[in-house]
Amino acid sequence: MLLRFTKMHGLGNDFIVFDAPSDDAVPDGAALKQLADRRTGIGFDQALVLLPPRAKDTDVYYRIFNADGSEVEQCGNGARCVGKLVAEKLARQDLHMDSLGGRVDVQLRKDGLVSVDMGIPDFTPAAVGFDATREADVYPLRVGESELQISAVSMGNPHAVMRVPSVSEAPVDTLGPAVENHPRFANRTNVGFLEVVSRTHIRLRVFERGVGETLACGTGACAAVAVGRRLGLLDEEVTVDALGGRLVIRWPGPGEHLWMTGPAITVFEGTVTL
Ligand SMILES: N[C@@H](CCC[C@H](N)C(=O)O)C(=O)O
Predict the structure, then answer these.
(1) 81 has catalytic annotation
(2) Does residue 88 sit in the same domain as residue 135?
(3) Does the pTM of the predicted model rise above 0.95?
(4) Cβ distance 269 to 8 under 8 Å?
(5) Annotated catalytic, 75?
(6) Domain that holds residue 147
(7) What is the pLDDT at residue 127?
(8) How far apart are CA 212 and CA 222, in angstroms?
């Protein structure tokens, strides 16, 4: 089978995006994992599969797969890329998209950046798949001999966020996988390391579930700002510096929708035989 794809990225978080007429045409997890390999495949953090719309008033449904072949609910940088690709194809400036993690509205801006409505952050432990007897701002989490202080939030997908004094010295390689696979997270989790620079500026590194550390994670940026807001550390609009570049997140507060703005870049188009 010949697969035509578009290689895209948002702040270096990279994707292949392709159309499938139906779920039957979506490659299985093993095939996607092989394509994700950066030496023997195409190489990507996520595969984004475009399918015909499923819900009324939406333009496209997309499925998301991590580099390890696992299917996930949401991808923020991917949402901007899918939004830009589909909006340009339809010659539109805005779109209503749908995913396993819920509805995502998209706006192409005049400055070339893309804004997406990432929904309402959900701090309930059940939404995150986190084992806790009651909802809290911060939870102690035992990892080996250490007790970490983490926050947990769902942006459609699960996030653990911990504050660090400096992202450049954060132990992402060791704590990332330990928290990703911690038994208190029923479905594993993405792990964000958050450095608060000021009330309007943070630095962030994210160890992504099913991938490892990426150059940026859109939902991770949303999760970090939502957590920082809830802790009273951040204002409504926050600039997020990831390893691969900058996003702007705006979240008025509980019960409100959170918007993310950033770039969505097409790198090349290609075909591969499965
Ligand atoms: N890169 C993404 C997140 C992709 C999914 C994530 N790894 C998960 O397993 O939930 C983003 O930009 O949000």
Answers:
(1) no
(2) no
(3) yes
(4) no
(5) yes
(6) 125-256
(7) 98
(8) 18
